[in-house]
Design a protein that fits this description.
Layout lengths: L1 H6 L1 E8 L3 E8 L2 E6 L9 E4 L9 E6 L1 H7 L3 E2 L8 H13 L7 E6 L1 H4 L4 H7 L5 E5 L4 E4 L1 H6 L14 E2 L2 E2 L2 E3 L2 H8 L7 H9 L2 E6 L6 H12 L6 E6 L12 E9 L8 H13 L4 E4 L3 H9 L11 E2 L8 E3 L4 E3 L3
Parallel strand pairs: 1-4, 5-13, 6-7, 7-8, 13-14, 14-15, 15-16, 16-17
Antiparallel strand pairs: 1-2, 2-3, 8-9, 9-12, 10-11, 18-19
Length: 336
């Protein structure tokens, strides 16, 4: 790659739509020449395409890059790799056997089709001696075993005001929508982006959109540092919160939409939402909504009652199996 940066690159024998099998010379990130045959220069990197199709770089329009990077060092706990409880128990036991005492086990991608709605009790039966946490594939739920709770400084004798779900007076091990709290408890250090960036590049992905709602101006700066250090190879568009309104775009790191992650049980005040949207529009940002129920989708559309044009992205929409009334908005959404 250093040679390519200094002297350019010659791609030999690539299938190019409208041109047949050709050679391409690339210099300073631009195609300099296309011909049936080009003589290689001494300082050029050479790639033999062997008749393979040459495509523009691909763009992944929806990912959470740091979560994806962390998943490379995590245990896959859901379909298609894991489909039943006994299989999950074996995988966790094998992973524990390779860990040093006290080292965390981190699982991702769990779905209730594997072993139902998990609590600490199910996890304790599979792994009792190592701290374990498993993330539901929705990204909104972590399940901890008892050793994991103790590693956070929580035990049944300590009540506290932590955000864990309680069943009676006892923590169930289930933690909803509390990633910020969890990062502070774990003294979280963000994973390096080099391995995941190189993996994505190997698939031909040259552009990314990180859709994490909690991205801030600091997140934008972190992505810029990763690009400058050579760890992040792709250009990246960063969705996030209101702090990105006044942030500056870089050459390879640019601001994306103001992302709102709606929760049906805790919808934002509509007037404040509209004010936030208008503020982002003044800074030339569109908005995006994450909606998973009809009520959330209807709520996201309500602010069209105000004469403010913008873009809406609603993802993963599904029907809620109950009738819901957005009382503060005077709107009804129902599903059978």
């Amino acid at each position: 790659m250093d040679l390519a940066a200094r002297g350019g690159m010659l791609i030999r024998g690539a299938e190019l739509g409208g041109h047949g099998i050709v050679d391409l010379r690339i210099k300073a990130d631009r195609i300099e020449r296309i011909a049936g045959y080009l003589q290689r220069r001494p300082d050029e990197a050479l790639i033999e395409a062997d008749g393979g199709a040459l495509l523009p770089g691909l763009h992944d329009h929806h990912l959470h890059l740091y979560s994806l990077a962390a998943s490379l060092e995590s245990i896959d706990c859901g379909p298609p790799r894991v489909r039943e409880a006994a299989q999950l128990a074996r995988i966790l036991a094998d992973a524990a056997a390779e860990r040093a005492p006290g080292q965390w086990l981190r699982g991702v991608g769990y779905h209730s089709s594997v072993a139902g709605e998990l609590t600490r009790d199910e996890l304790d039966r599979w792994v009792a001696d190592f701290p374990l946490r498993i993330q539901h594939r929705s990204g909104r739920l972590w399940i901890f075993n008892s050793a994991g709770l103790r590693a956070l400084g929580l035990d049944d004798a300590r009540r506290g005001d932590d955000p864990f779900e309680r069943l009676g007076q006892r923590r169930s091990g289930r933690l909803y929508d509390a990633d910020e709290w969890l990062r502070k408890q774990l003294k979280h250090t963000a994973p390096g982006l080099g391995p995941i960036s190189r993996l994505l590049a190997s698939y031909g992905i040259t552009g990314l959109t990180d859709t994490t709602p909690s991205n801030t101006a600091d997140s934008l700066a972190a992505f810029e540092s990763a690009c400058a250090e050579g760890a992040l190879l792709q250009a990246i568009r960063v969705m996030g919160d209101a702090s990105l309104d006044e942030a500056a775009d870089g050459d390879r790191v640019t601001r994306g939409e103001h992302k709102f992650h709606l929760h049906e049980h805790e919808l934002p005040e509509l007037g404040s939402l509209v004010a936030a949207i208008r503020r982002s529009h003044r800074h030339r940002r569109s908005v995006a909504f994450h909606c998973v129920t009809r009520t959330e989708l209807v709520f996201a559309l309500l602010h069209w009652r105000w004469p403010v044009p913008y873009e809406v992205t609603a993802s993963n929409t599904r029907a809620s199996r109950r009738t819901n009334c957005c009382r503060r908005c005077g709107s009804l959404a129902s599903a059978s």
